[in-house]
Write a structure and sequence with these properties.
This protein has 115 residues and is an all-alpha fold. It has four helices and no strands.
């Protein structure tokens, strides 16, 4: 086995991308943990504005009222969950994940109503 000529295994493209996203998530989470008070303050303003824009787009859109109110409910709940997590001073991981959830959901609602 000493003189073996086997090739070393390399990562596939999918694994490499997944590791890249994990690295970005981990680095961003660590930065958020270091300066949680300042980032939470800024994030409340940003995600509340984004949630308000998502609510406005929903209410202006032409869709079934039940679906519209259900989406509005989730936009509101996700924004309030993050705001409550900041006020309750929950763990940084929980607060950060709620921020991501709120921003992603509001952004998807806005993008979905643009087309």
């Amino acid at each position: 086995m000493e003189n073996s000529t086997t090739l070393p295994m390399t990562h596939t493209g999918t694994e490499h991308k997944a590791n890249g996203l994990k690295n970005i998530y981990g680095q961003t989470l660590n930065e958020f943990k270091k300066r949680q008070l300042g980032y939470s303050t800024i994030a409340i303003i940003g995600q509340s504005c984004l949630g308000s824009a998502a609510a406005m787009v929903l209410l202006m859109g032409e869709m079934d009222m039940i679906l519209k109110m259900t989406l509005l409910f989730f936009v509101t709940i996700f924004c309030m969950a993050f705001n409550g997590a900041v006020l309750a001073q929950l763990k940084p991981l929980t607060t950060f994940n709620l921020l991501i959830l709120s921003v992603v959901f509001s952004t998807l609602v806005i993008i979905a109503h643009m087309f």
